[in-house]
Design a protein that fits this description.
The chain is of the alpha+beta class and 270 residues long. It contains eight helices and seven strands, in the order ααββααββααββααβ. The chain is 40% helix and 11% strand. It starts with a helix and ends in a 9-residue tail after the last strand. Pfam families: DUF547.
Length: 270
């Protein structure tokens, strides 16, 4: 291999690594004002029955995980999932009250994520999706709602996070990975989303993938590093949030080292 070719190879690999690092940097909460509207007098109820039916058929609990049986999804059920997504995109969520909106956006995010996996299955990780220099599909256009093209990052970081300012949102939207908070077995609704968020927060924080003391070191999910601003913007505030849900007495008053980790393997039931 010539020196010129070696130099080119090193530059190319460095560029890929640099782009991956930038892509992996967690997006900030950045409000898209267009979506920050609601009609609190609205009594319209959005049906999420089709999504619930799919969860009942294909989501299974195994240890600390809920796993999706992607390989067994029938063509009919795959079409049902697309029909459900289409039914949501035909609505204008701004005409709904805020409680209906929250369930709308969280379920849409999760349903689109599952559809992306199904459309590209088999694969080992959602990170394999997206373009050459992408870290996953989160910046890809996935749906259009009232004429606005949306990415998964738009739904999470420009709608859900800045409008509701609820750190528990991280526990109910799922990135199809083992390290992620579980895909909720219940479709969110206006009436159950508070309970689902609470249950999901407690489940994740009391799982090894969420919080795990290891001697003098505390291993935390990387979501507490990537989205520290949502949990109070410093490790002390993050630990206070964790302690409010943790059943482990070793967490109380933690002052040792903290390490972050994440498992990007697919949340698949084989």
């Amino acid at each position: 291999m010539s020196k010129t070719w070696r130099l080119f190879t090193h530059i190319f690999l460095f560029a890929i690594a640099l782009v991956s690092m930038v892509a992996h940097a967690a997006p900030k909460s950045d409000l898209w004002p267009f979506w920050n509207q609601s009609n609190e007098a609205s009594t319209v109820t959005v049906s999420h029955d089709k999504w619930q039916q799919l969860l009942d058929r294909y989501l299974v609990k195994e240890g600390q995980h809920t796993l999706f049986r992607y390989s067994t999804v029938s063509q009919q059920d795959n079409a049902q999932l697309q029909d459900y997504i289409n039914s949501l995109t035909l609505l204008d969520p701004r005409t709904l009250n805020k409680a209906q909106q929250y369930a709308y956006w969280a379920n849409l995010y999760n349903a689109v994520t599952v559809k992306l996996i199904l459309d590209n299955y088999p694969l080992k990780s959602i990170k394999k999706l997206g373009g050459l220099f992408s870290f996953g599909p989160w910046d890809d256009d996935v749906v259009s709602v009232v004429g606005k093209t949306l990415t998964l990052n738009d739904i999470e970081h420009r709608i859900l996070r800045p409008i509701w300012n609820d750190p528990r949102t991280h526990y109910v939207i799922n990135c199809a990975s083992l390290g992620c908070p579980n895909l909720p077995p219940q479709a969110l609704t206006a009436s159950n989303s508070e309970q689902v968020r609470e249950v999901a927060a407690q489940a994740f924080i009391n799982s090894q993938k969420g919080v795990m003391p290891e001697g003098k070191q505390l291993e935390l999910s990387s979501i507490y590093e990537w989205f520290a601003s949502d949990f109070g913007n410093n490790e002390k505030a993050v630990l206070e949030h964790i302690q409010s849900y943790s059943k482990n007495p070793d967490i109380a008053g933690w002052s040792g080292k903290i390490k972050y980790r994440y498992d990007w393997n697919l949340n698949e039931k084989k």
